[in-house]
Amino acid sequence: MVQQAAEKTFMYISLKEETYVLAFGGLSDSFDSLAADYEAILKNIQFNQ
Questions:
Q1: For residue 1, what is the DSSP state?
Q2: How far apart are alpha carbons 36 and 5 in whole angstroms?
Q3: CA 5 → CA 2, 28, 33, distances in Å?
Q4: pTM (predicted TM-score)
Q5: Alpha carbons 27 and 29: distance in angstroms, whole number
Q6: Average pLDDT of the segment spanning 15-34
Q7: pLDDT above 90 (res 46)
Q8: What is the mean pLDDT of residues 16-39?
Q9: pLDDT at position 48
Q10: 3-class SS letters over 9-37
Q11: Contact at 8 Å (CB) between 22 and 40?
Q12: What gap in Å lies between CA 31 and CA 8, rounded to an integer?
């Protein structure tokens, strides 16, 4: 069995009386290189109110 380290980060967003959790994760050796992807995802998220 091959073991690989992973990293993750969570972002909590409160809108009105609801809380949303966004989770991003990946392998440790490539996690930081995915930051631009996470930024693009965050810029394009929309919540229906």
A1: -
A2: 21
A3: 10, 5, 15
A4: 0.69
A5: 6
A6: 91
A7: no
A8: 91
A9: 78
A10: EEEEEEECCEEEEEEEEEEHHHHHHHHHH
A11: no
A12: 8
Question: What token pair was written down for 31?
Answer: 């996690």
For residues 36 and 47, what is the distance between their CA atoms, to the nearest angstrom? 21
Say which amino acid occupies 36: A
Pick from 22, 32, 26: which is nearest to 8 by CA?
A: 26
Entry field: residues in the chain: 49
Q: List Cβ neighbours of 41 (8 Å cut-off, separation of 6 or more).
A: 22, 24
The residue assigned the tokens 């930081």 is 32
Token couple for 21:
């959790």
Q: Is 43 exposed, middle or buried (0-12, 13-18, 19+ CB in 10 A)?
A: exposed
| Single-letter amino acid code for the residue at 21 | V
